[in-house]
Design brief:
By secondary structure, the chain is an all-alpha fold. The protein has one domain. The longest helix is centred in the C-terminal third of the chain and has 22 residues.
Amino acid sequence: MSLQLIMIALGIVLIIEGIGPLLFPNRWRAYLKEISNQNQQLLQRLGGGLVTAGIVLLIIFS
C-alpha cells in the first residue's frame, strides 16, 4: 500500500466527516450533545465496532 493511497483514503474520510458540520451545523451540535450524554460503555462498543469494521475492510481490500 503506497503513501499516496493512504493519503487519498484519509482525504476521503475527512471530506465525509466534514459534510455534517458544514451543511447542518445546528443538527450536528445537537447530535454531539446527545452522544455526550450516552453511557461510556455504549460509546466504547460503538468505537470498537467501527475500528473492527475498518480493519476488516482494510484486510479485504488490501
